[in-house]
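Hi everyone, sorry if this is the wrong subforum. Our group has a chain we'd like a structural model of before ordering constructs, and none of us has done structure prediction before. Sequence below.
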Amino acid sequence: MPKLKTKSGVKKRFKFTATGKVKHGAVGKRHRLISHNAKYIRQHRGTDLLAKQDVDHIKKWAPYGLK
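Answer:
Right subforum, don't worry. Here is the predicted structure as tokens:
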């Protein structure tokens, strides 16, 4: 059987924790930040855990995990 490829977008956007949860960065922080106020930028700092319902999709797109 050939190996499965990891979706390149998943490599850039997600990390797996040791317990199998998925971390992701805040949305809306990549460009056009001048249109957001300071409170929005401050509150969307750091990372968050992905909902359990979405974790199954991410694990399919990263079949061998992420480093």
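For your construct planning: The two ends are 23 Å apart (CA to CA). The mean pLDDT is 94.
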